[in-house]
Amino acid sequence: MAGYKGHLAGSLAFFGVYLAGLAFIFSVDQAYQQFSELELIGVPVVLCGLCLMFGLWPDVDTNSKGQNLFYSIFFVLDVILIIGRRFEWAAYLGLFAILPVLGKHRGWTHTYWAMLLIPSPLLILPYLLFPDRPFAGLPFYGAAVVGYFSHLFMDGLVISFPHRRARR
User: Fold this and answer.
1) Of 51, 54, 70, 84, whose Cβ has the fewest other Cβ atoms within 10 Å?
2) Do residues 100 and 109 make contact, with C-beta atoms less than 8 angstroms apart?
3) pLDDT > 70? residue 39
4) Pick from 7, 134, 123, 130: which is nearest to 58 by CA?
5) Dist CA 117 CA 115 (whole Å)
6) Alpha-carbon distance 137 to 15, whole Å?
7) Quick one: pLDDT band at residue 65, thresholds 50, 70, 90?
8) 18 with 144: CB under 8 angstroms?
9) C-beta separation of 136 from 130 below 8 A
10) Is the pLDDT of residue 81 over 90?
11) Does residue 22 carry a pLDDT above 80?
12) Contact by Cβ (8 Å): 32, 127
């Protein structure tokens, strides 16, 4: 079981592999070699940020740095929605935000289905907003899933690590 620093380090390591894979895929396909300088710098930074955030997300169900980060984001978003008089959306955000703390630690937030479902808005919303580019959200969804997977891996939920015996 890793602390938040371990989860961030694990997310960075997994992100490095993910970014190398994306670079290889995009270098092979000629259509994607037309990125601007801003995209060449900005997109990997955003992808890394998503990977790091979702590397912390599963621990949102307990008192942790991840919980502090995400609930701060939820609070700011809720205030913005209320100021914009989007009360229904603010209520939905509040309902969504409370779900992780209703479960036990290492409950549903530490499952494979949550790893695929929680980041799904990153895949679905770009598909709905930009129908001419149906796969625009795929790299972002992939970064979030990689970060989430790194958390499960670092917690030993992917591969069971043998317990080390205490040296006498």
Assistant:
1) 84
2) yes
3) yes
4) 7
5) 6
6) 17
7) confident
8) no
9) yes
10) yes
11) yes
12) no
Q: Which amino acid is at 62?
A: T
Would you call 36 exposed, middle or buried from its count of C-beta atoms within 10 A (0-12, 13-18, 19+)?
Answer: exposed
Q: Could you write out the DSSP letters of every residue in 67-93? A: HHHHHHHHHHHHHHHHHTT-HHHHHHH
Element (H, E) at 150: helix 138-154
Token digits for 8?
């961030």
Two structure tokens written together for 141: 């969804």
**pLDDT tens-digit series, residues 120-143:** 999 999 999 998 988 889 999 999
The whole-angstrom separation of Cα 85 and Cα 32 is 40
Phi, psi of 34 (to 5 degrees): -110, 35
8 Å CB contact between 52 and 8: yes
Q: Encoding tokens for residue 74?
A: 């939820």
How many beta carbons lie within 10 A of that of residue 91, not counting itself? 13
Closest to 22 in 3D by CA, of 33, 11, 8, 38:
33
Counted residue by residue, the chain has a size of 168
CB 48 within 8 A of CB 143: yes
How far is residue 2 CA from its own chain's centroid?
17
